[in-house]
Amino acid sequence: MSEQEKFDQLELENGVFETRLTKKFALRKPYERIDPRVIKAVIPGVVAEIDTRVGKTVRQGDIMMILEAMKMLNRIKAPQDGTVKVIRVAAGEKVAKGQVLMELE
Amino acid sequence: MTFMQRIVDFFTRKSTVSKGGGEQAISKQRAGGKMTARERIAALLDEGSFHEYDLFVEHNCQDFGMDGKELAADGVITGSGTIDGRPICIYAQDFTVAGGSLGLMHARKITKVLDHAIKMGIPIIGINDSGGARIQEGVNSLAGYGEIFYRNTLASGVVPQISVVLGPCAGGAVYSPALTDFVFVVNQISKMFITGPEVVKTVLGEEISMEELGGARVQAETAGNAHFFANSEHECFEQIRKLISFLPDSNRQKAEAIEPKKPKPAYRIEQLIPKDSKIPFDVRDIVRALVDDSEFFEVQELFATNAVIGFSRINGETVGVIGNQAMVLAGVLDIDASDKIARFVRFCDSFNIPLITLVDIPGYLPGSDQEHNGVIRHGAKVLYAYSEATVPKITVILRKAYGGGYIAMCSLHLRADFVFAWPTAEIAVMGPEGAANIIFRNEIMSAENPEEMRKIKVKEYTDKFANPYVAASSGYVDAVITPEETRAYVAHALKIARNKGVSLPARKHGIPPV
To answer: Which of A15, A29, A44 shows the shortest C-beta gap to B362?
Structure first.
């Protein structure tokens, strides 16, 4: 029974415990710090148009791209002031959720 | 028409409608490993007990060529019957009739039987097997769903509501099961989702099968929407009959007691506890050692397995048992376990079922995924549910009871009526290691050998605080008892609490965190 089983260890605030771990626990996502300069697609869609170019200086709130998704034309705005370092997609391209669209510097 | 003609006419009409969607559709249903709606009702209820109503209800849709179309019983069979002699209201959607699609009259048949269940104070069982809204009926079909959801909400906490998903149950339709108390699913047959694989693919580009997205196993194991998982429809019906045996007909009654039985000799409590206090034990075995006939009818057996919930009997009377499962994730409270416990506590409280809580909790699960997904509001549900519950509440602290977890697991402070603790209980604000690191930080840091000093201090703290006596000295534990005495203490407490009366402040309703 329980005494023969080889358990895993789980470290908690209150000590280290012998126990079994679950699939969900193993699949939990580690935290990833958000870099505001990297602009990612929050929903999948198609790049309708690109309204900026590499090297262009942008102000926070400037529209840089239109992403057509969920039947809506979504304006992708600059999250902060900066210069467009690289554009990773082209107009007409299908993008997945979380895909990097462009980066600022 | 002569009398005989009328009788013949009646039987002809009845037999036509009773055939549902016809031979072809029925063979298709069977080929998919599914029973027909009528077979399901017959298999679930006591033999010959089913009385059908509204057999001759017809839809009144005129659009899209529907006016000439006859849909037998409008695709749903409703009525009442018995399970082990207990009265039950029931409906079963008939997939062989227009895919079990829900039109206005179909919905009205369901709401009628739901109203009946509420009025009569008897459980309602809904067997779902439907392609969804009957598109031809447009917004009337949506009205039908809305009427069902409204009845489900009214019936909540009044009569036990059981949903059985034996086929597709997609889109808005999923909200009826979601509003009910127990959802039963069958492997490879049940499919539940808000948006299906096709939409997921178009919108998100994700390739996922129906089974992976919302199959029975996913619902029972990952999403936690289903409470009981079976491998066949027959097994599922056995589970439903078993569940019904533990429940009262309505909130106006107590569950019927049966002949008391002793726990089985195979479950000797003193032999179930490992000698090494670091080695976890299966809390379900402890439950079995405490309850009549060692029968623990587990609810949500596959979901959030770091907590266990289920029904048992003590001295013949139904109890709801909640336990932290140290075997899995050390028995921590996390988002899923909190939801699981809180909902169960509320169900038991609504239906006059006393609560037995077995505590062995090291605390909460740390991590950004937990915090960001709202472990605070989910964890708060447990506190709310236990505090609000006015049924007899009996708590047994087996081992660890640290920090917030101690408070949450039906402590005296949340108005447990009886708190018992085993001599192995460790009731403390923190685990010894964490506490020693904080309290003796300076001594440890300034010691010549900090690691050595840390060990000494951890031992010091363990000796002094990792026991039930500090809490007992403040009266937070009513009695320290041996494992062998537990059943007798719990049984006595239930007897004492039988006529418990508590009243909560007058209010329309509380606002439980969700």
So the answer is: A15
Residues of B in contact with A29 (CB under 8 A): 369
B408 domain residue, yes or no: yes
Interface probe for B, chosen from A14, A24, A28 (most Cβ of B below 10 Å), is A14
A38-104 CATH: 2.40.50.100
Q: Which long-range contacts (CB under 8 A, 24 or more apart) does A81-84 make?
A: A81/A57, A82/A37, A82/A57, A82/A58, A83/A55, A83/A56, A83/A57, A83/A58, A84/A52, A84/A53, A84/A54, A84/A55, A84/A56, A84/A58
- Parent domain of B458: 432-465
Give the minimum alpha-carbon distance from B195 to chain A in angstroms, rounded to a whole number: 14
pLDDT digits 0-9 by tens, B189-232: 999 999 889 888 877 778 899 999 999 999 999 999 999 999 99
> Is the pTM higher than 0.90?
yes
How does pLDDT run across A30-47, given as a tens digit for each residue? 888 888 899 999 888 899
Interface test with chain A among B195, B203, B429, B462, by most A beta carbons within 10 Å: B203
Q: Tell me, yes or no, whether B36 lies in a domain.
A: yes
Overall domain count for chain B = 3
Do residue A18 and residue B367 have CB atoms under 8 angstroms apart? Answer: no
Give dist(CA B431, CA B435) in Å, integer: 6
Note which residues in 36-55 of chain A have CB less than 8 A from chain B.
43-44
